[in-house]
Amino acid sequence: MQFKAVRSSGAGGQNVNKVSSKVVLSFDLKNSQALSEEEKSRLETKLSSRLTSEQILILKCDEDRSQPKNKVIVTKRFLDIITAGLVIPKIREAIKIPKSVIRKRIKDKKNLSEIKKYRRKPEF
């Protein structure tokens, strides 16, 4: 994980021109030793739209005027993204619909059909 401070863009006058308050975090997923191969592959698939072609995650923060606050914000954002990417989804199991539920649904449909049939004008 590498942090780099750069000059922030946008309005701010003289402060923007002389102070490097924007923080850029870059995380090399491929060469990371903190993650196992399984975790790397899971993050690679889940974060594929956010990774560069060299498997580097780049996050930027220029929300605040102070560099330390921006560093805290971007670190928190990074941790949220990584923890969300490492979550293993529960396997959904198909269940069999009980026959009583199917019978009840068909009975309700027939009942509604009868009600609507009696609303029509009679045929002579």
Write the layout of secondary structure elements.
Blueprint: E1 2-6, H1 14-18, E2 22-28, H2 37-46, E3 56-61, H3 67-85, H4 99-119
Antiparallel strand pairs: 1-2, 2-3
How would you characterize the overall build of this protein?
This protein is of the alpha+beta class and 124 residues long. Helices cover 44% and strands 15% of the residues. Strands 1-2-3 form a three-stranded antiparallel sheet, with helices on one face.
Task: Provide tags for this entry.
124 residues, alpha+beta, three-stranded antiparallel sheet, 4 helices, 44% helix, 15% strand
Question: What does this entry show, briefly?
Answer:
The protein is 44% helix and 15% strand. With 124 residues, the chain is an alpha+beta fold.
